[in-house]
């Protein structure tokens, strides 16, 4: 069952902004454009969790931008078809270069926000695979422009009953459509043009994996030779979805094989995992069983490792079917992780996967670590894929300790910088497009949280996996920690790049080597020596016995000073409200609720 039966913002915002009524059975809460009823004082199949509002708000934002990109893609494809048809005659024939230039000019002239946003044939199709009571699905339908079809799917009959009731109460009952019966599509006249998903909302009680395995037919399949029995079987499959949303209670791993096949090429997978005890290293054996990856318990960067393990699993699963992934946004929020991944048909790109997946070698006695991809380019011309030679060094250079091996994990970028920038711009709009669709809607209850999150994401180094935290270094040598801006200054003055990480306020993400990081601390330690000297045979003694090899300058450079000033100004978006990058939990016990029981309950009896 899904965690997605939650609604709304932090507790205070819920009380102030949401219309709430109650009787002996239900309580109504408004989230976005939707009014949702949930049982009061019952441990029901469908439950309410305010933590997940940020998840849904972020999903609305990201899929709105994706819908616009999809509209541009479809418009350009239509223009390309028109140009090709015109090119059949000698009078209108153009060179390939001329056609491409005309397409480029046409795309540059498009404003995705003014493209047709009504439900049309080229609109976006969405599967909410674990929809529970349908809150997320209904928000997608009402708040995202350009949506043609949403399938609300859940395994539990009680959840499906509640979804139908919520659709009725939100005035969407007339948008509900029946499923298509494909059993009669084996006749020649019915297989010439495969059926497409109808305009509207379809609600079904079924297994998410079965629905996705049945939805593997490319939408580009438009003509079927009747003599080809294999293609006839393809015609009986349902079309792929543009967007598949997986929001399970726990791990999404069991659904990934079906999902990477059921999403259209260029489509979006939105995946949540809440099994942080496994991904976060508390139960590494469970993580290995689910994701074929080993986290490193107690490592500082475990939150980022969790994201990279999930992305690795999606990437390697997609590669089996000649598909590659492009992470659009990958974030840790509250007690879960959430990724938005574009999946593409790209058999040539699959060959590069060994360069994008690798392992971390973590020292057992200090924060030093090394990253190594599983593959490398070798040969005389550097064009031959070869196994990696790892680890880079046999022992930790600082302490002589052994390494622990973590992974495999995704080593490529976590985000698409252009999309993140567009998301921030859209989030800051005073009159967003969603309010034009739903004038009475409260826009993004978690806006301040999302803005702080995306501001941090925007600054992250995209090509540097994992990060350090200076308190971990200080813990080894037992000294006070230098200010984080002083550490960043030393790195910049040393010629290295540095950023933070959106989930950890003490994170230092940098391309500097371990030795430079330790030299920062060696110089700091000499300037601020503790009263007690470390034993020379201890890890601290071995580290401090080495003289710094780099010149360390803690002077704040102008570039960093400007960034600090800009961040301070950006924290006040309207002169009144401050945007916090690492907000505190708004109430006690801010975390996952108990899993739904799965027991059938009749709505009329509640």
From TrEMBL:
Its EC number is 2.1.1.216. Residues 73-100 form a coiled coil. Signal peptide: none annotated. GO terms for molecular function: tRNA (guanine(26)-N2)-dimethyltransferase activity; tRNA binding. It catalyses: guanosine(26) in tRNA + 2 S-adenosyl-L-methionine = N(2)-dimethylguanosine(26) in tRNA + 2 S-adenosyl-L-homocysteine + 2 H(+). It comes from the Eukaryota. One of its GO terms (biological process) is tRNA N2-guanine methylation. One of its GO terms (cellular component) is nucleus. Keywords: Coiled coil, Methyltransferase, RNA-binding, S-adenosyl-L-methionine, Transferase, tRNA processing, tRNA-binding. Residues 596-606 have a biased composition (Basic residues). Residues 1-25, 563-606 are annotated as: Disordered. PANTHER family: N 2 ,N 2 -DIMETHYLGUANOSINE TRNA METHYLTRANSFERASE (PTHR10631), TRNA (GUANINE(26)-N(2))-DIMETHYLTRANSFERASE (PTHR10631:SF3). Belongs to the class I-like SAM-binding methyltransferase superfamily. Trm1 family. This is tRNA (guanine(26)-N(2))-dimethyltransferase. It comes from Seminavis robusta. The lineage of its organism: Eukaryota, Sar, Stramenopiles, Ochrophyta, Bacillariophyta.
């Amino acid at each position: 069952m899904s965690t997605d039966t939650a609604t709304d913002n932090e507790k205070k915002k819920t009380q102030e902004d949401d219309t709430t009524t109650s009787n002996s059975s239900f309580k109504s809460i408004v989230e976005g454009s939707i009014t949702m009823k949930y049982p009061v004082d019952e441990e029901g199949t469908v439950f309410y969790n305010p933590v997940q509002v940020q998840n849904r708000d972020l999903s609305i934002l990201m899929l709105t931008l994706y819908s616009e990109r999809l509209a541009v893609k479809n418009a350009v494809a239509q223009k390309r078809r028109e140009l090709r048809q015109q090119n059949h005659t000698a009078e209108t024939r153009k060179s390939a270069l001329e056609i491409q230039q005309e397409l480029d000019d046409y795309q540059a002239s498009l404003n995705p926000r003014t493209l047709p946003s009504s439900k049309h044939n080229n609109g976006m199709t969405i599967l909410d695979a674990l929809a529970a009571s349908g809150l997320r699905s209904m928000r997608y339908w009402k708040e995202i422009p350009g949506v043609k079809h949403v399938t609300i799917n859940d395994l539990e009959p009680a959840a499906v009953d509640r979804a139908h009731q919520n659709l009725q109460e939100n005035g969407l009952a007339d948008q509900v459509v029946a499923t298509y019966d494909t059993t009669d599509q084996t006749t020649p006249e019915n297989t010439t043009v495969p059926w497409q998903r109808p305009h509207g909302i379809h609600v079904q009680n079924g297994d998410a994996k079965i629905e996705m395995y049945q939805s593997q037919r490319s939408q580009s399949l438009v003509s079927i030779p009747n003599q080809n029995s294999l293609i006839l079987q393809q015609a009986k499959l349902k079309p792929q979805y543009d967007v598949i949303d997986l929001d399970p209670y726990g791990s999404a791993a069991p659904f990934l094989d079906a999902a990477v096949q059921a999403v259209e090429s260029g489509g979006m997978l939105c995946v949540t995992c809440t099994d942080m005890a496994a991904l976060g290293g508390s139960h590494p054996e469970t993580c290995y069983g689910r994701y074929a990856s080993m986290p490193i318990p107690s490592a500082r960067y475990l939150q980022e490792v969790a994201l990279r393990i999930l992305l690795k699993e999606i990437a390697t699963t997609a590669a089996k079917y000649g598909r590659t992934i492009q992470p659009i946004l990958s974030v840790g929020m509250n007690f879960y992780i959430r990724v938005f991944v574009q999946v593409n048909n790209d058999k040539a790109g699959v060959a590069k996967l060994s360069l994008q997946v690798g392992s971390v070698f973590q020292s057992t006695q200090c924060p030093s670590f090394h990253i190594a991809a599983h593959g490398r380019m070798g040969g005389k011309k550097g064009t031959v894929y070869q196994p990696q030679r790892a680890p880079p060094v046999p022992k930790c250079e600082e302490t002589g300790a052994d390494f622990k091996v973590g992974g495999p994990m995704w080593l490529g970028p976590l985000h698409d910088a252009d999309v993140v920038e567009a998301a921030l711009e859209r989030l800051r709009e005073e009159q967003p497009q969603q309010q034009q669709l739903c004038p009475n809607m409260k826009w993004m209850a978690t806006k301040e949280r999302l803005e702080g999150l995306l501001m941090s994401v925007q600054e992250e180094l995209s090509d540097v996996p994992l990060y350090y935290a200076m308190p971990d270094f200080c813990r080894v040598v037992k000294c006070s920690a230098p200010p984080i801006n002083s550490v960043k200054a030393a790195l910049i003055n040393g010629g290295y790049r540095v950023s933070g990480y959106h989930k950890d306020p003490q994170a230092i993400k940098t391309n500097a080597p371990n030795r430079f990081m330790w030299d920062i601390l060696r110089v700091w330690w000499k300037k601020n020596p503790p009263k007690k000297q470390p034993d020379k045979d201890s890890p601290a003694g071995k580290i401090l016995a080495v003289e710094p090899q780099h010149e360390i300058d803690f002077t704040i450079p102008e570039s960093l000073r400007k960034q600090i000033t800009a961040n301070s100004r950006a924290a006040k978006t309207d002169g009144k409200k401050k945007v916090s990058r690492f907000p505190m939990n708004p109430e006690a016990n801010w975390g996952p609720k108990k899993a739904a029981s799965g027991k059938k309950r009749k709505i009329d009896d509640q």
